[in-house]
Amino acid sequence: MPKMIFVNLPVEDVAKATAFYEAIGFAKNPKFSNEHASSMVWSDAIYVMLLGRDFYATFTPKPIADARTTSGALYALAFDSKADVDTITEAAIAAGGGEPHGPEDHGFMYSRAFEDLDGNGWGPFWMDPAAAENGPPEHASASDGSAQ
């Protein structure tokens, strides 16, 4: 079995959260979805499980954070282009999500941020393939001995 990741997110309304994630490009896997949870597929290895808060509570004795007021994690997704980063962010905003800050362009990397309907934070980004291979420009020049 390949290595996979399943991100479990507590949500107020499973149906509304499902519609949001479908609007930004995730596909619902009906085999693992019901009124308490939606299995949302990003790729063959990445799934987001949208769990109603009561159902989510069955997996942990801890209090469930409200992502609208508390940040516990930020989820980053890599894209092939800056345009793809803009596309998913604009789709998230159009579907009712928020944008906590504007675009960040560092030359070798471009990112944006959006929050889903429940405040869960996502950071779509594009990175220049050379930087992905060698590190950011300042790191590459320091490691090759050319930085003074």
TrEMBL record:
Region (Disordered): 127-148
Domain of life (superkingdom): Bacteria
PROSITE patterns documented for this protein: VOC
Alphabetical list of SUPFAM superfamilies matching this protein: Glyoxalase/Bleomycin resistance protein/Dihydroxybiphenyl dioxygenase (SSF54593)
UniProt cross-references to InterPro entries, sorted A to Z: Glyas_Bleomycin-R_OHBP_Dase (IPR029068), Glyoxy/Ble-like_N (IPR053863), VOC_core (IPR037523)
Keyword terms, alphabetized: Lyase
GO molecular function: lyase activity
Residues covered by the VOC domain: 3-127
Protein name: Lactoylglutathione lyase
Source organism of the structure: Sphingomonas donggukensis
Phylogenetic classification of the source organism: Bacteria, Pseudomonadati, Pseudomonadota, Alphaproteobacteria, Sphingomonadales
